[in-house]
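User:
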Amino acid sequence: MFVGEKRKMTDKVSTDRRIKRSENLIKNAFYELAKEKEITKITVKDICDRADINRCTFYAHYENIEIFLDTLEQEYADKFLKAFSLYHYDQNPAKMLDALFSCVKSNKELFALCFRSGSSGKGKKVIADAVLAATLPNWLNQHILSKEQAVLLEAFVTSGGQKVMQLWYESDFSYDETMVKRLLENAIKHGVYHFLYKDR
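Assistant: Predicted structure:
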């Protein structure tokens, strides 16, 4: 490798690290502020003051506060859906639930946008749309539910499961995790499956 090329690679690594460091400072400042005030009341100035950076640094990464929040909404949605991808309608959901709960616990600050009021709800919409797209075809292939029934049932399961996880989150994870997961597991296996397989 030529000296010039090696220097360019070194410079790129250094730049990438600085970018990552600045983004982490911004995110961590926001997470701290989110514990103290409503999400909708957090400003760019608040974040910059807490992170001890100037506004130019913030705007070098995000055009405005709305885009910054949208980035976080997409980030938690992506993490959630990666864990949800372990779900298979004809298998035990325990593995998927384990992954979901682990995901939320290990990204507690990020998921404040999902479970606390004041967020745009865009992340939830991404999750809801993706979950529906993943589950509906399999459910309809059972030839037991109509499309309307399947959509309604999926909405019930998704919103109910989300509320259970929200209560667990808001308890600061004080609810017994195994108990909550088994509750959801049995609701899926013996509730949803009753509709999917009742005529078989």
